[in-house]
Amino acid sequence: MPELSARLRQALPTVLGLAIFLAALGVLRSELQAVHWRDVSAGVFGIPGLRVAAAVVLTVLNYLVLAGYDLVALAYVGRRLSRWRVTAVSLVAYAIANNVGFAMLSGASIRYRFYSRWGVTAGELSRVVFSYSVTFWLGLLTLGGLSLALGQAPAGVGAPARGALMALGWLLMLTSTGYVAATAIRTQPLRLWRLQVPLPAPRLAVAQLGISCLDWALAGAVLYVLLPPAPGLSFPLVLGAFLAAQLLGLASHVPGGVGVFEGLMVVLLKPVVPSTALLPALVVYRAVYYLLPLGLALLVLVADETRQRRAQATRLGVALGRLTEQLTPRVVAVCVFIAGLVLLLSGATPAAAGRLARLNRVVPLGLIEVSHFLGSLVGAGLLLLSQSLARRLDAAWLLTTVGVAVGIVASILKGGDYEEATVLGAVWLVLWRARPAFDRRAALLDTPFSGEWAAAVVAALAASMWLGAFAFKHVDYSNDLWWQFELRGEASRFLRASVGASIVVLLFAVSRLLRHAPPDSVVPTDADLEAASAAIAAQRSTMPFLVYLRDKALLFNTARSAFVMYAVQGRTWVALGDPVGPSETRARLIRSFLERSEDYGGIPVFYQVGRDALHLYADFGFTFVKLGEEAIVKLTTFTFEGGHARAHRQALRRLEKEGCTFRIVPAADVPALLPELRRVSDDWLAHKAGAEKGFSMGFFDEAYLSRFPVAVIEREGRLLAFGNLWTGPGGVEMSIDLMRYDRDAPKGIMEMLFVQLIRWGQEHGYQRFALGMAPLSGVEASPVGPLWNRLGAFLYEHGESVYGFQGLRAFKDKFDPDWEPHYLAYPGGIRLPRILADVSALVAGGYRRIFFK
Questions:
Q1: Which of 139, 510, 542, 774 is the most buried (most CB within 10 A)?
Q2: Res. 722: pLDDT tops 70
Q3: What span, in angstroms and rounded, lies between the C-alpha atoms of 271 and 248?
Q4: Given this model, what pLDDT does residue 430 score?
C-alpha cells in the first residue's frame, strides 16, 4: 500500500495536467462553435509577412534578454564566465525547456550540466537556480499585478469582484517591489526553514526585476504583433491575458502549455478579438516562438556532436563537449514527437484546395487512401518511438528513420503536402546526422514507458481527434462515412485514420500491460562474477571485492571489461563506488547506469565515490555531498620505530603475554575453519547493538568468506578474532572487510590484528592498507553551507552515543593514515533526505533495521 500511494502521488501531476488539457479542448470546442476550419486555415496564411517578420525579430530579442537571467544569477554567486558561453547555454536551454515543460525545472537541469563543467560548484549552482527562479517570478508578479490593478476586468465581472482583482494586483506588485526593497534593507542571509540564502545586492535585484519584466513584455509582444487591429485591442489587455494564460499553462505541466494556453486566450480575448482572427495568430505564435528556436537549438547540438566525433571542435563545440551526447537524443525525441503530431493533425484536416484533384490525375484513388491511412499510422508510431529515442536505443533510431521516410512519401501521395514533407525531411536529415548518438543496444519493450510520455501520447491523439471533429463538424455523421472511398471523402479518411492511429496506440499499451516486467536487479551468475574478476584485475582498488557477496546487480559495458554494481531501494538506484575496470570505460558506464535507472523511473546515485572521478559525474549533472573519509596507511613509509609507535608495540607485547597468536589462513583452508568463524561472528552480533549489515560492507556468507584469506588471532587453539583479507591486484592495496571478535577476547585485540596485518602487508610488498571509512569525518559545518553539511557535522559532534563517529576516527588515527574523502553523487534537488534513507535501508537490510536490530 505505501508503494501504491507513492506511485499515485508521483502520477498525480501528470493526471492533472492531462485533465486540464482535455478540459481546455472542451472549452475550445464550445467557444469555436461558429468558427470553420477553412477560416482558420486561410487566416494562418493571410497574416501579413511584415507582422511575421516583426514577431521573429521580437522573438530573437526575447531570447537574448533571457540570457540576462543567467548573467545576473552568475553575478549573484560571484562567478565570472564568458558572456558568449552563458548566452549560448541560455539560448539552447530556453529553446528546449520552453517546448519540453516547466522552464525553471527542465532549464535548471540543462544549465547544471553545462556550468558544473566550467567550475561552478554544487552550492553555487543551487544559488543560481534560486536567483533565476526569483527573476522568473518577479516580472510575472509585477506585470500581472499591474494588469489586474490598472487593466480592464473581463466582461460579466461585478463590482465586488473587480475590487478584489484590483487588490490582488496591488498585492502582487507589492510582493515583487518588497523583494527589491528587502535587498537594500536586509544584510543578513534570508532564512528559509533551515536554509540560509544570501540576498543579492540591490543593483542585482533591480536588474532581476527589469530583465524579467522585459522578458514577459517581449514574449507578449510577439503575440500582439500577430493580431489584427481591432477596436478596444491594446497591448496591456493582450499582455494581461497572455500572463494569465501562461500561468495556467505552467500549472498544468503540459509541455509548452499547448491547448491550455490557447483555450484561456480565446476565453479572455473573446470580447475584443474574434476567434477567427485569434486562432491563426496563436498558431503562428507557436511556430515562431517555440518551434523555430527548438529547431535551431537542435541544429546547434547535432552540429556540435558531429564536430566532436570528428575531433574538429569549434569554440562552441569545446564549450559544449560531451554534453551534446546527453541533450541531442532528447531534443531529437521532442522533434520526432512533433513530427508524429504533424502527421496525425494532417490526417485529421482537409487537404489544401485543388491539390487532391491535381494529384488524382497521376495517382490512383486507392493509393491516396492507403497513403492517408498509412500517414496517420506512422504518426502514432513516431509518438511511441520518441521516448525510446530519448533513451538512445539504436533500434528506435532505425525504426524512426524508416518511419519518417515513409511519412514523407505518404505526405506527398495523400494530398501533395509538400510543406509537411519538408518538415519531415528536415527531421530525417537531423536523425541521419545524429546517428552516432543512438548507440544503446536494448529491446524496445525492455524499457518502461514513462507516465509523462504516455500522457503526452494520449493528449496528442486526443488533439488530432478534436481537430478532425472541428474541421469536419459541418459533415453529418452516418455509418456510411466509414466505407466511402471517393476523392472528396476527406471526413471518411479522417475517421479511418483516427481509428487506425488509436489501434496502434492501444495495441502498444496492451503489449506493455501483458509483458513480464523485468526485475530491477538480478543476482549475478558465475559467468558474471568471472567477467567481474577480470575487470577488478584491471584496476587497483579492493572495494570491488564486495561484488562476490552477490547482493548487487551488475551492469557491464558492451565488451564486459568493466561494470557497475548496484542495488535498488524504492525508486533509488544506488551504484556502489566508481565504475570498476579500465579508467577509459568509466564515463560510458556512468551514462549506461543513468539510462537504465531512467528506464524504470529511478533516481540514480553513486555511493562512496572518490574525488578523482568527480569531474565525470559533474559532466552528467550530478551534485555531491561528502559522506566521510577513508583512512589509508602508506605501508612504504609506515614504521614501528620511534615514540609515535610505542602504543602499537605495547599492544603486541601485552597480547603476546596473554598467549595470543596471529596467522593468515589461506583461502583454500577457510572452509574447514567456517564453524569457528561462525561461532565468533554470532557472538559478536549478539553483544552488538546493530544487526548484520550489507551492500557496502561484507556480511557473514560462507561462499563469500571462502574466496579470501582470513587473518585470525587465536589463544591456545581457540579463535578469538578474525577478519577476511582483501589483497588487491598488482600488490598495490590491501584491506580488511568483515571484522569480528569474541566477547571474551582481551582488550586491544583489534589493534593487534591491524598491527599484524600492517607488518604482513609490508613483508609482502603492498603499498597501502585501506582501513575503511570514518562516516561524516571531515564534513565542514559552515553556517552558510548546505543543510547536509551542517547536519552531518552536528551528528559527528553529538551522535557519539548512537554510532561512535569520533571514536572510530580516533581509533584509525592511531595508525597515522592519510584521509581520502568519499562522496555521494546524486541528481540534485530536494530528494537528498529520501536518497539517504534509501541508502541507509540498503546497508541495514531494510528501513526498520536502520533503528532496530
A1: 774
A2: yes
A3: 20
A4: 82
Beta carbons of 734 and 726 less than 8 angstroms apart: yes
DSSP state of 580: B
Does position 382 have pLDDT exceeding 90, yes or no? yes
Contact yes or no for 741/684 (Cβ under 8 A): yes
Which stretches of 608-712 are DSSP H helices? 614-619, 646-657, 670-686, 702-705
Angle at 331 between CA 327 and CA 335, to 5 degrees: 170
d(CA 276, CA 222): 19
Q: Is 672 exposed, middle or buried (0-12, 13-18, 19+ CB in 10 A)?
A: exposed
Q: What is the pLDDT of residues 184-209, one digit of tens each?
A: 887 676 665 545 667 788 888 898 89
C-alpha–C-alpha distance, residues 431 and 429, integer Å: 5
- pLDDT mean over 406-433: 87
Check residue 271 and give left, alpha or beta (phi > 0: left; psi -120 to 50: alpha): alpha
Separation of alpha carbons 52 and 228, rounded Å:
12
Strand-pair partners of 774: 629
Q: What dihedral do alpha carbons 192, 195, 196, 202 form, nearest 10°?
A: -50
Give CA–CA dist 409/426, Å, rounded.
14
SS3 content of the chain, % helix, strand, coil (to 5): 65, 10, 25
pLDDT at 364 over 90: no
Q: How many residues does the chain have?
A: 853
Q: Is the pLDDT of residue 258 over 80?
A: no
Pairing of β 603-610 and β 572-576:
parallel
Using the predicted structure, report yes or no on whether residue 709 has a pLDDT greater than 90. Answer: yes
In sequence order, the 6+-apart residues with CB closer than 8 A to the CB of 380 are 340, 344, 461, 500, 501, 502, 504, 505
Which residues face 821 on adjacent strands? 629
733-741 and 768-775 beta bridge pairing:
parallel
Dist CA 602 CA 568 (whole Å): 9
Compute the distance between CA of residue 841 and CA of residue 612 in angstroms, rounded to an integer. 27
Cβ–Cβ < 8 Å for 237, 154: no
Determine contact, residues 471/494, Cβ cutoff 8 Å.
Answer: yes
Residue linked to cell 525545472: 105
pLDDT for 269 equals: 86
Which ranges constitute the DSSP H helices of 47-82?
A: 49-76
563, 555 in Cβ contact below 8 A? Answer: yes
C-alpha to C-alpha distance for 605 and 366, rounded to whole angstroms: 55
Q: Residue 674: CA atoms inside 13 Å, Cβ hemisphere, count? A: 14
* Higher local confidence (pLDDT), 105 or 647: 647
What's the CA dihedral at 47, 50, 54, 55 to 10 degrees? 20
- What's this model's pTM, rounded to 2 decimal places? 0.63
Q: What is the DSSP letter of 41?
A: H
Least confident span in 106-115, 386-395, 449-458, 837-846: 106-115
The position carrying cell 564549450 is: 319
75 contact partners, CB below 8 Å, separation of at least 6: 204
The helix (H) or strand (E) run that includes residue 571 is none
